[in-house]
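Bench notes, afternoon.
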Amino acid sequence: MEHAIAEMERRRYEAMRQADIAVLREVLDDQLVYAHSNAATDDKESYLAKVQAGVFRYESISIEEQSTLQLGGVALLRGRMRARGLLNGTPLILDNRFLAVVRNSGGQWRLLSYQPTPVR
């Protein structure tokens, strides 16, 4: 289970970096609530539309630490993420702690909710 979740997260972060909509569509839950470090939120379709439009362009994304707590068909991921890229063409450096909720849907783990908190 933990390996499958870690693999889904690896695919998600690589898809974010590559702006790979097909993979993101696969690993994001249809009921996604994605909060950003500026407090804006997106559902699955609005998030995918922003990725496709180039609103977010990630040069690098790294997970510094991550722990997983499984609760049946749901798991909580806690950790620290760092990223560099562009937000609407403006340079962006992220250093966030995060809480992510993933759930097993149809035998596949998908991101249901993401909440970052900037480290300052």
